[in-house]
Amino acid sequence: MSKQSAFDEQGFSQTVAILIEEIKALYLADDTPWVVGYSGGKDSTTVLQLVWTALAELSDQERHKTVHVISTDTLVENPVVARWVARSLETMADAAETVGLPVEPHQLTPEVENTFWVNLIGRGYPAPRHKFRWCTERLKIKPSNAFILNVVRANGEAILVLGTRKAESSVRRHRMEKLEGDRVRDRLSPNGSLPNSLVYSPIEDWSNDDVWLYLMQSSNPWGYNNKDLLAMYAGASEDNECPLVVDTSTPSCGDSRFGCWTCTLVDKDKSMSAMIQNDEEKEWMLPLLELRNDLDITDDRHLRDFRRMSGKVQLFHDRPIHGPYTEDARHDWLQRLLEAQTWIRSNGPDYVTDIELISMEELHEIRRIWVFDKHEIEDVLPGIYYDTTGEKFPGPDFDDVLVLSADDLAVLHNICGDDKLHYELTRGLLDVERKYRSMTRRSGLFDALEKIVRRCYFDDEEDAVDHARRRSLPFAVIHADADAGSGADADAGAEVIEVDSTG
Question: Which CATH code for domain 14-234?
Answer without folding.
Answer: 3.40.50.620
